Amino acid sequence: MKRGMCPGTFDPVTCGHLDIIERAALLLDELIVAVADSPDKGGGPLFTLDERVALIEVATSHLPNVSVQPFDTLLVDFAKKAGATVIVKGLRVVTDFEREFQMAALNWRLDSKVETMFIMAIPEYMYLSSSAVKEIARHGGNVRGLVPDHVATALERTLGAR
Ligand code: PNS
How far apart are CA 102 and CA 97, in angstroms? Predict the structure, then answer.
């Protein structure tokens, strides 16, 4: 029984995240999408932790072996507590590599029993990020196709209320 963990801030979840989650779910018996509180990232997330979890729950409802959980501890501690032995991350353009390499090395240093595994983003989503999606949405651009429809609606509602 192989349980993995796909961690991130997911502010908000994109079609690129979902592609990685779906492909990881095929390789593992169980996958936990671990949503980090990340209060300090980029001036603070747009969506609350509960909102981010709920958006991913809807987006992954068709995947029976995927669950979504929030966390605000060290990732390796959360993985250990949840019984996950693999951390799955998506890799996009080369600029991801340095940061991901650093996180994988530090996580290994913290707990070498938890392995980090990378799945390459497909070309269509190679340049897609939550930050870019928020920037497009903030300026009234169309994000349909970059995020699931319910996330696009949540972006319109949240940014419109500001
Ligand atoms: O989507 P992100 O922001 O790239 O995800 C980064 C995340 C949440 C996976 C990373 O910041 C993390 O693991 N945070 C939890 C705290 C932790 O364990 N930090 C040490 C890892 S170097």
Answer: 8
